[in-house]
Design brief:
This protein has about 775 residues and is mostly beta strands. The protein is built from 2 helices and 50 strands. The strands form 12 sheets. Strands 35, 36, 37, 39, 40 and 41 form a 6-stranded antiparallel beta sheet that branches. Strand 43 and strand 44 form a beta hairpin.
Length: about 775
Amino acid sequence: MASAVVALAAAGSAAAFQALPPGGQVNDDLAAGIDRTLGVNGDNPTNADVVGGALVAGKPNVPWAVLRAHTTGHDQIFSRSFANGVWTTRGNGTVGGRSLSSHAFSGSLNFDQGQDGEAPAIDFAGTGRTVPWATWYENTQGAQFGQNNIFASRFDDSQGKWVFGGQGRGLQTVTDTAPVPSLNIHTNQDAENPSVAGGSAVDPTKPGPWVTWQETGASAPGLGNDQIFVSKPVGPGTANCDGIKPLGVADGSGHVPAIGGFCWNQVGIDRLGADPSLNVDRGRNAVEPDIAFTGNNDGVPWVVWYEKDTPSTGLAGNEMVFAARGIVPNPAITPAPDGGFEWQVVGTQATGVLDNSTAGSTCAASATAEGLCSLNKDASKDAEDPRVAAGTMNPANATAPWVTWDEKDASGVNQVVVARLVTAPTPHFEIVNNGAPISIGANPSTRPDITFSGNTPYVSWREDIGGGVEKGFYGHFVNAANPTFVLDESDVPLAPTTQADVREPISSSCTANPFNQDGKACQGTAIGTPFFLFTNDVSGSTLGLFGDAYVPGTPTTGAASSITQTTANVAGSVNPQGAAVRVSFQYGTTTAYGQSTTPQTLGPDNSVDSFSDQLTGLTANTVVHYRAIAVSDFGTVVGTDQTLTTQSAPPPPPPPPAPPGDGHVSAGRASISGTTASIPLRCTGQSGANCHLVVKLTVIETLKGHKVIAVTAAKTTRKTVTVGSTTVTLIAGQRKIVKVSLNHTGRVLLRARHALKVRLLVTETLANGNSVRVTNQVLTFRTKKH
């Protein structure tokens, strides 16, 4: 995902964020039917959703969005993903839709392009969490329809299309060929505001898409009031949906078709006539649910919602936020709960299993009990618009639900509150941030959303900063032992609530799930950069949908130290501005650099963090360019270029002192005494010089074989015969009479001839191996009688 960071878009990003893409909108693909000049819808509670995901297991997660866009006809649901700096529309037509013959808007997910698609949501499911699932609602006509119905589709990358999933619930008209794969419990009742999450209590490697929504109750005691329902998938590859509730309609084969190979199975105890409502107070409206999966293997479904309007007798009349988890049912329950789960409401001080008793659970026994089972900070104040995310701030712990909502404070101003599930001494929700709201403005803070990036929870909301001006607020929690909120940014421009009373959805490239060890090891070595969508007025009446991501500040390239011929230490600093960031140094002999240090991860925090590293492999006496860089999952921010000069190579060592050299030899006249010759020698030269001498006595004789037989004669073999030799070394300034005597051969010749003429040769051996003659004298040895 990383690419060069360019200037931020004036229409969107605040200082701490990077526009996705700069100057562009998410709702912009005219060829697919997304006309940015027509804009997106502004109806509550949302016009878009976003999640991090990938189509290939282990690849970095990128933003996937679904949105409700105005068109020249009815509002359509579209999906787009962001990678390599651009948004790409996902899907060219659908499989199983009613509009197959007339794709006026080729990228639309709508079942019927002649009806408005509303309130889209998206998450990933399937093997390896690689299958995007989108859900929304649209009005469905027909004898057994006539109201808003919930739909869900999965993206099939091999076809490039969205494929509807679910049991056939019948045809809209007798001429239709596409059965309606509605999720509704009753297709003739209004159903709205769905949410989808991937999870499984059976096989964590293959999470299925679970969907929750609100639907008008069709029987007492909830007749006419919105109820919360949940369905889980049966599939893929299901042959038919016979007998699966909600019951479908058989086609000509006599079986209920499993459209797209899936069925939807309602989940919970039949406690509203034959319907598995999650309402605590079934006699009033429960709306805007959200769903997430928690636990070591995402095996525990959690649903949050709020209840409002006129209560049942004896119960509270203010708006209240509730959370319920799916639990293994009591085997004594008859009939067995649908989908293999019953629901347990968990509040700040009490819990209660939803059942088919008169009250419906212990949580509805009284207004006091209801308040204890709620998540409200103050059970007497209005609380609404909850959202839930799975995660943990402590990597050693399993993920748990974190819930955010807005609630009126003592002065009647809506503030954003966050709570997390705590298991001891018994499971209950605890308000974090020391029990205080995370928003503090004097004007309303509304429509929060929550996500995890790795082990850090992030929250977004919209806030009136005065005069009807709306801004997007974003921040994260620190300190796992006592989670405390840190505000990262409060200046993202939003359309006024009067134009767009919508949630600004937030997600990240490292949401906690079993495929990244609950956030400890982001897929594809992603950093885990949070990103979000937001709605702003672009022309006074047209709403644009924009994308932003956290971005670090510009790093500072510091000075170099400990510079040697081949290494240098360099320093830098950067403000991560609320999200994790990866830092390093680039270096080389030019500003093209070419080498870099091993990346380090800093943050998330909002202070200037220092970092350092060692540059290696440098060349002596060379100018080296270097700079600090900071990387998010969406780009690189670079510091200024700095230079250093490596140390010069040391001069070569001085040559060793020249040897004193060879001495010079002079020789005097040799004298003879008996069979010994004596010659005076003298060595001269500089101090330390030596004279290495060889002294030889030789004769030239005629040989017969190896025997000397005569003095030299013609036509005979001649050989120089050594008849005496010695060696001696003198040092400069030394005089010495060197004696050399006849050897055995010389003495034999002398006795035979009585007079022996020999040659005295003195040579000096020099340091270079050569020899020079010092003297060459002829001497005669004589016997006594001569």
